[in-house]
Design brief:
10 helices, 3-stranded mixed sheet, alpha+beta
């Protein structure tokens, strides 16, 4: 049985209109309470820590927060079982949560000092940092969305340097400034007592080690800029706002660190004929007055170029919507939408003399005159204002 996700604002204990600073402070409070280092072996605390971090990662990002506010968990892929991992947070593990926490609170602001009561820094280097995620927009036509498509996109990103294998050089040795810890600890005496500040080592950039000879290819960064063509398979039924993460195709991490992801954001191009409403398509279909009045058959275009014949009953009013089952777009999770055909009376702008004469005769006929309203417009207005 699937457990429903809690509201992200409820998880952090903030109002929906909370500022970015309020969200950050609220997350820090919850994360410090349930951090694994404070609750060793406590699976419930670990789950709450991951839940709080997942909520923070969405609400701290303006675009993700806007989608969440509009569509809930579905807007950020929060519902488990999304196809192809399209923004699905179901794979959000403890390592992801700890990495996010360290990113924003790994130094002096509520990081190690708060966790360990000012007792110092854990031994060992922080390790190589993960590379940045990149984002690319992929415009698609309705035809491509209906069938699914594989696209080639060109991406400029930072790749691991092949010359030094991402290490930035050779002759690696322990950093003499931080002694391999990746962080430096500064103690300051004030009239209020002792203050300890922990920051990333400026010499080794948190790696704990430095190289004796810098790589000439990458200049010591361990990464070089490259433009690469990659393929992305887009399933049928996607919509604007959906995104597909391509794991490991973002920027490579510093000095051998893991690469970030490439986020392919779907954009839907407007169509000249069809208008999308979820999985349904709407078509405005002009029909001559004689067909609406007498009935008949009309051919309706379908997405992709085929046609479908529908019957029009006699006396059909302009604006009537006919539904053609299963001729809309496929759904991401199965099924298919419908094609909605709105019939609009077509009024000709150019008439021959004979046609005008026929219309004049028809206009004089009693059967073509609209029925008179039971009460005049003047009477309805007068009653509305108590006259």
């Amino acid at each position: 049985m699937t457990v429903a996700k809690r509201d992200y604002y409820e998880v952090l204990g903030v109002a929906r209109g909370a500022s970015e600073d309020e969200i950050k402070k609220a997350y820090r409070k919850v994360a410090m309470q349930y951090h694994p280092d404070r609750n060793p072996g406590d699976k419930e605390a670990e789950a709450k820590f991951k839940e709080a971090t997942e909520a923070y990662e969405v609400l701290r990002d303006a675009q993700k927060r806007a989608r969440y506010d509009q569509f809930g968990h579905a807007g950020v892929g929060g519902a488990a079982g999304g196809p192809g991992g399209m923004g699905d947070f179901s794979g959000f593990d403890l390592a992801d949560a700890l990495r996010a926490f360290m990113r924003d609170f790994g130094g002096g602001e509520g990081g190690f000092e708060d966790l360990f009561g000012g007792g110092g820094v854990r031994g060992g280097a922080r390790g190589s940092g993960r590379g940045d995620d990149l984002q690319v927009r992929l415009p698609l036509t309705l035809e491509e969305i209906a069938e699914g498509v594989e696209k080639k996109i060109r991406v400029k990103h930072l790749k691991r340097c092949a010359t030094c294998d991402g290490r930035g050089g050779k002759g690696e040795r322990t950093c003499t400034q931080c002694h391999g810890r990746g962080q430096v600890r500064r103690v300051q005496q004030t009239m209020f007592g002792q203050f300890v500040n922990v920051t990333t080592c400026p010499r080794c950039h948190g790696e704990g080690s430095i190289v004796s000879e810098t790589c000439r290819t990458c200049g010591g960064d361990g990464r070089v800029s490259e433009t690469e063509t990659v393929s992305v398979k887009v399933p049928a039924g996607v919509a604007s706002g959906n995104y597909i993460p391509l794991r490991g195709l973002g920027d490579a991490g510093l000095r051998g660190g893991p690469a970030g992801d490439l986020i392919v954001l779907i954009e839907e191009k407007s169509h000249d004929v069809f208008e999308r409403h979820s999985d349904d398509l709407l078509l405005e279909m002009p029909v001559g007055f004689p067909t609406l009045a007498l009935g008949g058959k009309i051919e309706v275009p379908l997405l992709g170029g085929a046609v479908h014949t529908i019957d029009v009953s006699s006396g059909t009013a302009s604006g009537h919507v006919a539904r053609i089952r299963g001729k809309g777009l496929p759904g991401l999770r199965g099924g298919r939408g419908d094609l909605l055909v709105r019939l609009r009376v077509w009024v000709p702008t150019k008439l021959t003399g004979a046609e005008k004469k026929l219309l004049e005769e028809l206009r004089r006929g009693e059967g073509l005159r609209p029925p008179k309203a039971a009460r005049s417009l003047f009477e309805r207005v007068r009653d509305a204002f108590g006259g």
